Amino acid sequence: MSFLRRERSVLPGFGLSLGFTLFYLGLIVLIPLSAAFIKTAGMSWDEFVAAVWSPRVIASYRLSFLASFAAASVNAVFGLLVAWVLVRYPFPGKRIVDALVDLPFALPTAVAGIALTAIYSKNGWVGQWLEPHGLKIAYTEIGVFLALTFIGLPFVVRTLQPVLEELEPELEEAAASLGANRWQTVTRVILPELLPPLITGFALAFARALGEYGSVVFISGNMPMRTEITPLLIITKLEQYDYHGATALAVVMLVASFCLLLVINLLQKWSRRYYRV
Question: What is the value of pTM for the model shown?
Answer without folding.
Answer: 0.84
